[in-house]
């Protein structure tokens, strides 16, 4: 899985067809969508129209909360694949654990079946906590390869990242740019960026890459799609990394996975 990919939350289906096309032309090869984003059809169209060989692409989609459960997961997977126009998926994620319901266990058993049947190359989770991961390990067979969670300099998830490292799970950062709001105006990032001739967004993405996180920044702006991909020609120093480590505020932008049960 490429460490730097492209996310498409809040991109309308017709816009996704265009934006994913721009991302692929720029050089991205990993695309992160979800059933809930309602843009799997446009994403699939862009993948096909790119002319890029299927084995050079890495496609992730996610099972939405309302479809948790064994049979409903199998049906939702088929529907996602029909919209994407794919035979085999690279990575399928349970979007949210919804711990109070406990249905993520049967959902995962359906993921295991799809994986064992060769319909998915890798299975993972999103928004899982240490507690929901431990229950998954105890009650199911296949370990998730990825946990995609909110992660940016204001929410660094140190404890969860260390847990992932101990269990050989890759950490994937959603909202890696803090949704482009206050974070990118932080003076610490401006100072580091000036020293390297890079923008605040590029500094943040480089920080993720050097930590070992998988990142999937979203933009519908072609210049930003290119800017976010141009992060492989510089390196943050140990002092830069320490300064960004000091920005942690354990501050979420999105919902708390311990309590988020939205099915809409
Ligand atoms: N599993 C989950 O529960 C979740 C997964 N995700 C995934 O993570 C992806 C990324 O997260 P997302 O929440 O979209 O937020 P990001 O942190 O990627 O930020 C996206 C926002 O930042 C702006 N932006 C992008 N690049 C730049 C730049 N170089 N300079 C300034 N502003 C910039 C974009 O604007 P513009 O588009 O106008 O250019 C957009 O408003 C999603 O698209 C989705 O795939 C996201 C949330 C939850
Ligand atoms: O974007 C996603 O993948 C999400 O799960 C979020 O949008 C989430 O549903 C949310 O933020 C709801 O407010």
What does this structure look like?
This protein has 264 residues and is an alpha/beta fold. Helix content is 42%, strand content 14%. It has helices at 13-26, 40-50, 70-84, 104-116, 130-139, 158-166, 187-196, 200-211, 222-229, 238-245, and strands spanning 6-7, 30-32, 58-63, 89-94, 120-126, 146-150, 170-174, 214-215. Strands 1-2-3-4-5-6-7-8 form an 8-stranded parallel sheet. Helix 1 packs across helix 9 (222-229), helix 2 packs across helix 3 (70-84) and helix 3 packs across helix 4 (104-116). It is globular, with a radius of gyration of 18 Å. The ligand O=C(O)C(=O)[C@@H](O)[C@H](O)C(=O)CO is lined by residues 9, 34, 95, 254-255.
Brief overview:
The chain is α/β, with parallel strands linked by helices. It has 10 helices and 8 strands. It has an 8-stranded parallel beta sheet with strand order 1-2-3-4-5-6-7-8.
Structural class estimated from helices and strands: alpha/beta
End-to-end Cα distance: 30 Å
Parts with pLDDT < 50 across at least 5 consecutive residues: none
How much of the sequence lies in strands comes to: 5-15%
Question: Could you spell the SSE succession in H and E letters?
Answer: EHEHEHEHEHEHEHHEHH
Small-molecule binders here are:
NADPH dihydro-nicotinamide-adenine-dinucleotide phosphate, ligand LYEC3VGP
What fraction, in percent, of the residue positions are helical? 40-55%
How large is the count of helical segments? 10
| Largest sheet, spatial ordering of strands | 1-2-3-4-5-6-7-8
Care to count the β-strands?
8
Largest sheet: 8 strands, parallel
């Amino acid at each position: 899985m490429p460490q730097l990919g492209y996310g498409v939350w809040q991109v309308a289906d017709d816009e996704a067809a265009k934006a994913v096309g721009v991302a692929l032309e720029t050089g991205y090869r990993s695309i992160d969508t979800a059933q809930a984003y309602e843009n799997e059809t446009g994403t699939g169209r862009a993948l096909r129209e790119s002319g890029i060989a299927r084995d050079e692409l890495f496609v992730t989609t996610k099972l939405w909360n309302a479809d948790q459960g064994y049979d409903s997961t199998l049906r939702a997977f088929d529907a996602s694949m029909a919209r994407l126009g794919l035979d085999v998926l690279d990575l399928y994620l349970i979007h949210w654990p919804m711990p109070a319901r406990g249905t993520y266990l049967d959902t995962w058993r359906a993921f295991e079946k799809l994986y064992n049947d060769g319909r998915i190359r890798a299975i993972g989770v999103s928004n899982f906590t240490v507690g929901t991961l431990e229950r998954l390990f105890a009650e199911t067979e296949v370990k998730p390869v990825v946990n995609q969670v909110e992660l940016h300099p204001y929410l660094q998830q140190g404890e969860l990242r260390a847990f992932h490292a101990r269990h050989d799970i890759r950490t994937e950062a959603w909202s890696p740019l803090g949704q482009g709001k206050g974070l990118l105006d932080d003076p610490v990032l401006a100072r580091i960026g000036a020293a390297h001739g890079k923008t605040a967004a590029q500094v943040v993405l480089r920080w993720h890459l050097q930590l070992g996180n998988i990142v999937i920044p979203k933009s519908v702006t072609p210049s930003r799609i290119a800017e976010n991909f141009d992060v492989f020609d510089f390196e943050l120093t140990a002092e830069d990394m320490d300064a960004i480590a000091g920005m942690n505020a354990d501050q979420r932008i999105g919902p708390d996975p311990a309590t988020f049960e939205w099915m809409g």
